[in-house]
C-alpha cells in the first residue's frame, strides 16, 4: 500500500501549536506516527483533537512547530501541498461528497485529475472497492440516494482509490444514525488489520480499545497520556483520564 521506509515515521510532529483568538487549541504537541499504526485520538469535546488532525494535512496552518511527512518538512514556504495531500487521505464527519456527481465520478475524479491514475485504472480500482463494500450497484447513483453509512463508506473508498500512505479520519461516525455506525467501523477495522496507517479522531471508545495500536488522549490542546489501549483506556494514570473514562465507559 505504501512506499514509506518502515524505519522512518510517516509523520513526525514537533512542538505543534495552533491558536484561535489567543486560545491554544493545540498546545505544544509532539508525536510520531509510524507505518501500519492505527493511532486513535481521544478526549473530551473541545480538547483540540480535530484541530490537531486538520493541522496534520494543513487544512489548518499551524502557528508554530514542525510537521514532517516521510522525512520532509511540509509546513514551510513553497512546500508542494497538493503533492503531499495526494498521499494523505482524509475522511470527514459529513462525507463531503460532490452532490452533482455520481458515486463513481466522486471516487475517480481525484486520481484522474491529479494524474495518479488513468480513467480506466481509477474506474477499475473504484469498481473493485465498491464490490468489496457491497455498493457496486450504487456506482451510477447520486449521493442523495444513499444512507449516511453508505455515504461514509464511499468517502473511505474515495480516499483509498488514491492509494494513500495514511488516512486521517475526523469523527467519521459522529454524524451517523447508530444503526449505520457498525458498517463504517467494520470497514475501518478491516483497513487497520490490513496495515493501513490511520489516524482516527473518534468518540467510539470501545472501537478504539479493539482496533487502536496506540491511543493519544488530548485535553485542553495537550496530549496528556498516550500508549496502548490497555494502558490509556483501561489503566489511565492521569486523573483527568480517570475522570473522563469513569463517565463514558
UniProtKB/TrEMBL annotation:
It comes from the Bacteria. Keywords: Amino-acid transport, ATP-binding, Cell membrane, Membrane, Nucleotide-binding, Transport. Residues 11-245 form the ABC transporter domain. SMART domains: AAA (SM00382). It holds the Pfam family ABC_tran. It comes from Victivallis vadensis. PANTHER family: AMINO ACID IMPORT ATP-BINDING PROTEIN, GLUTAMATE_ASPARTATE IMPORT ATP-BINDING PROTEIN GLTL. Belongs to the ABC transporter superfamily. It is found in: Cell membrane. Its main location: membrane. One of its GO terms (cellular component) is plasma membrane. InterPro entries: AAA+_ATPase, ABC_ATPase_HisP-typ, ABC_transporter-like_ATP-bd, ABC_transporter-like_CS, MetN_ABC_transporter-like, P-loop_NTPase. The lineage of its organism: Bacteria, Pseudomonadati, Lentisphaerota, Lentisphaeria, Victivallales. This is Amino acid ABC transporter ATP-binding protein (PAAT family). GO terms for molecular function: ABC-type amino acid transporter activity; ATP binding; ATP hydrolysis activity.
Amino acid at each position: 500500500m505504501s512506499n514509506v521506509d518502515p524505519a522512518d515515521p510517516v509523520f513526525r510532529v514537533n512542538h505543534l501549536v495552533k491558536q484561535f483568538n489567543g486560545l491554544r487549541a493545540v498546545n505544544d504537541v509532539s508525536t510520531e506516527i509510524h507505518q501500519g499504526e492505527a493511532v486513535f485520538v481521544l478526549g473530551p469535546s473541545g480538547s483540540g483533537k480535530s484541530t490537531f488532525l486538520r493541522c496534520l494535512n494543513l487544512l489548518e496552518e499551524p502557528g508554530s512547530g514542525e510537521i514532517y511527512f516521510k522525512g520532509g518538512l511540509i509546513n514551510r514556504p513553497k512546500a508542494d501541498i497538493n503533492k503531499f495531500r495526494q498521499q494523505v487521505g482524509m475522511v470527514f464527519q459529513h462525507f463531503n461528497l460532490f452532490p452533482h456527481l455520481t458515486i463513481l465520478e466522486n471516487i475517480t475524479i481525484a486520481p484522474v485529475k491529479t494524474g495518479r491514475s488513468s480513467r480506466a485504472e481509477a474506474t477499475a480500482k473504484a469498481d473493485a472497492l465498491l464490490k468489496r463494500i457491497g455498493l457496486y450497484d450504487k456506482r451510477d447513483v447520486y449521493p442523495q440516494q444513499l444512507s449516511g453509512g453508505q455515504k461514509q463508506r464511499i468517502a473511505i473508498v474515495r480516499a483509498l482509490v488514491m492509494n494513500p500512505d495514511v488516512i486521517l479520519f475526523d469523527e467519521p461516525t459522529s454524524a451517523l444514525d447508530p444503526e449505520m455506525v457498525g458498517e463504517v467501523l467494520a470497514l475501518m477495522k478491516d483497513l487497520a488489520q490490513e496495515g493501513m496507517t490511520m489516524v482516527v479522531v473518534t468518540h467510539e471508545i470501545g472501537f478504539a480499545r479493539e482496533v487502536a495500536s496506540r491511543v493519544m488522549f488530548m485535553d485542553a490542546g495537550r496530549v496528556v497520556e498516550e500508549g496502548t489501549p490497555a494502558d490509556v483506556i483501561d489503566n489511565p494514570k492521569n486523573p483527568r483520564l480517570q475522570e473522563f473514562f469513569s463517565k463514558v465507559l
